[in-house]
Amino acid sequence: MNDYVNEVALAEEPEETLSMNPRKFILWLFIVSIIMIFAAMTSAYLVRRAEGNWLEYEIPSIFAYSSGVLVLSSLTMHWAYIAAKKDNFNALKLAISITFALGLVFLYMQFQGWVALVDEKVFFVGNPAGSFMYVFTGLHAFHLISGLLVLVSALWAAFRIRIHAKSLNQLEIAATYWHFLDILWIYLFFFLVYFH
Amino acid sequence: MATIESNSPAVAHADVHDHHEPQSFWRTYVFSEDHKTIAKQYLITGIIWSVIGISLSVMFRLQLGFPSMKMDFLRPILGTWIDESGKLDPDFYLALVTMHGTIMVFFVLTAGLSGTFSNFLIPLQIGARDMASGFLNMLSYWFFFLASAVMFGSLFIETGPAGGGWVVYPPLSALPQAHKGSEFGMTLWLISMALFIVSQLLGGINYITTVINLRTRGMSFSKLPLTIWAFFLTAVLGLISFPVLLSAALLLIFDRSFGTSFYLSEIYVNGEALPNVGGSPILFQHLFWFLGHPEVYIVLLPALGMTSEIIATNSRKPIFGYRAMIASMMGIAFLAFIVWAHHMFVSGMNPFLGSVFMFLTLIIAVPSAVKAFNYITTLWRGNIRFTPAMLFSIGLVSFFISGGLTGIILGNSALDIQLHDTYFVVAHFHLVMGAASAFGLLAGVYHWFPKMFGKMMNEKLGYIHFWLTFIGIYLVFFPMHYVGIAGFPRRYYAFTSYDFTKNIFADMNAFISLAAIFTFTAQWIFIYNFVNSIIRGRRATQNPWKSNTLEWTTPIVPGHGNWTGEIPAVYRWPYDYSKPGAKEDYIPQNVPYSQTLESNLPHENELISLEKEIEAQNLNDQFKQPH
């Protein structure tokens, strides 16, 4: 019995029984929890809106432009991924840096969006229609800042050549999270446009 | 076990891991990433919290049972909350009720129960070296510790801790000027709960990832012990529902501190109109109970999972209806999300909607009845060994049934008009959720104590503890049903308005209070036994309960990494007890069918050929991967 087990164990090359790296799996579960936060928020929005006494206002156009910036940053993030796969380190560093910069631009535009809202006399304190707008954008911005931190650590790893074609996990995690934040914003934006 | 050895020579490369040298005191016992240490940290914090939480309930039971009592003797603890005439401050009474609920539901029965046993048992029972991320696991405990510190601190501030009930409904909780319990104590409550939610999410994410990704060879989902199924489903429930509570709390924080009107509308305080318009307090109830109801099962499911395991082991019988047990837990977990509005029948909701939620609520009786039936049929004609853990598990079944039956009454939206917010509700959920889960927790401690500390607990003290607690809990909560049907509302400081509250039921309330004090006193037997057994307990053997699951194949006190050498592979389900033809009345999961030819069933003989395949699978050994 002993020998028999040994033979089998040694003869066979260990094969991957898992579908996913645990860290990536953790990220996906983390994303689920963020989805639930926003699902709760958007359903609260709908429930509250159905009760009437709802302020109607124009959504500042800058939010549409900022959405474009964020989509663009997703593209550069994907460029970083392709570069890493080809071990093209200069392009990798450049692409992550551009993504990071676009993230900052997005945050600045969101802030300008708030300024535009204030100009429209839509305040954080007041009718919940306006308050929800600030909460959605603010909460998303908060998560985007966490995404920027993930990007910084990926950039740091890229400079120390710890991201390359054979070690993509960290970059893949950063990219998944970044794309998720992008999709989350697009969802929120169209939600707000459709139900404002 | 011959198998464990037969696997170990294959581990020539097991010593790849070399950076796990003995660590400093701080890293070993305080900021530990080892799941067993974190589990013990959760357990001990949970025990401390339960003592605090139950003492608070004894204090308000004194007020309820003996309204004219002079409580000067409590002044050393409560200070000015006892006024000159020796009366308990009414504001502080509300704070006591609120903190009792918060502490027991979240800090004891969520963190103390899941935190302890999910952490301890998941890696040990699925055959993993540790959790998927030891760091996140450590973070989870320390977020819980921070939440605990904030909540504990709120007990001592001048305006007192939060006092709006553990459900913190706005507008009461949203307006600091509303009452003392909504002032700084409420702010601390929200901060503490936000930290607590982060802690639970970190923990839950880890549990799910570990169960899915780090099972040992052969440990398919259909071979998982029911404990792991329960912990897994609990973590899924938490992952989906806690973020919703976070959202609700966040909007409440904005209302409290920034002046928004999510939950506030047209309110007058002291004759003065507040500026808030357009909010909806019912919105909070929807968000809160979307967590709040799953939370009931977050508390209960781990207890059900552990007692399934304990009852099968100590009945020396396979669990009856293993798949039905899993299916009913899944059913309960699913239904948990679509019944929340039964907490809001009298909030002015559409009666038709109420009847939909009533229907969904009553469906929960089906999977619950399946579970109760399976418990009883597992016990039926079993070769029962009445260990303390087994007694507590049977006690859980008793509470689960007697408390569950009143759930059918309360789930009815018409009856709820009478029963809503009365002591009938209090009696119901204390039996089915509070006492049942607490018994699951106690059963778990008695059963896995040998694995946690390498010592045995004193059985005699365990028996005394069980009988006093079991009788005490029924003495507390059975009469409470009558008080509730009579119409006593919960959370009231005193009942002085009506003759029936003043005279007829006063003696029953006094009786309940005496029973509560009696039950609380009995818990010190457990605490004495727990501490004393850690220090002076009899040394445990490797498998004291002759159990089948993997944790009993580890060394008596498992070190970092749990198994020395290779992690055992798994060939069979965990409930091969008293199998006809077998040499002993249990066959652990890691014994292959090829070694038990005398007891194999025909289809199991066919599985022998698959053993090679199982053994050839990649062992997902964390110690062999860079981490």
> Which structural class matches the secondary elements of chain B?
mainly alpha
Most extensive interface: A-B, 44 and 54 residues
Q: How large a portion of the residues of chain A is in β-strands, by DSSP E?
A: under 5%
Most strands sheet of chain A: none
Number of helices of chain A: 6
CATH superfamily of chain A, by name, is Cytochrome c oxidase, subunit III, four-helix bundle
Helix content of chain B: 55-70%
Helix count from the secondary structure assignment of chain B: 20
**Which architecture name of chain A does CATH use?**
Up-down Bundle
CATH level 3 topology of the largest domain in chain B:
Cytochrome C Oxidase, Chain A
- Name the CATH homologous superfamily of the largest domain in chain B: Cytochrome c oxidase-like, subunit I domain
> What is the N-to-C succession of helices and strands of chain B?
HHHHHHHHEEHHHHHHHHHHHH
Chain-averaged pLDDT of chain B: 91
As for the CATH topology of chain A, it is Four Helix Bundle (Hemerythrin (Met), subunit A)
Could you give the distance between the termini of chain B? 31 Å
The low-confidence parts of chain B are: 1-19
In short:
The complex is a heterodimer of chains A (196) and B (627). With 196 residues, chain A is an all-alpha fold. Helices cover 78% and strands 0% of the residues of chain A.
Give a structural overview:
The complex is a heterodimer of chains A (196) and B (627). Chain A is mainly α and 196 residues long. Helix content of chain A is 78%, strand content 0%. In chain A, helix 2 packs parallel to helix 6 (169-195), helix 4 packs antiparallel against helix 5 and helix 5 packs antiparallel against helix 6. The termini of chain A are far apart. The model of chain A is unreliable at 1-17 (pLDDT under 50). Chain B has helices spanning 2-7, 25-30, 35-65, 75-78, 90-126, 134-154, 184-213, 226-258, 281-315, 322-335, 351-363, 365-379, 388-410, 415-419, 423-453, 459-485, 499-504, 506-536, 602-607, 611-616; strands spanning 268-269, 272-273. Chain B folds into two domains: 33-536, Cytochrome c oxidase-like, subunit I domain (Cytochrome C Oxidase, Chain A, Up-down Bundle), CATH 1.20.210.10; 545-624, no CATH class. Helix content of chain B is 61%, strand content 1%. By secondary structure, chain B is mostly helical. In chain B, helix 5 packs antiparallel against helix 6 (134-154). Chain B is built from 20 helices and two strands. Chain B starts with a helix and ends in an 11-residue tail after the last helix. Chains A and B meet through helix 1, helix 2 and helix 5 of A and helix 1, helix 7, helix 8, helix 9 and helix 20 of B.
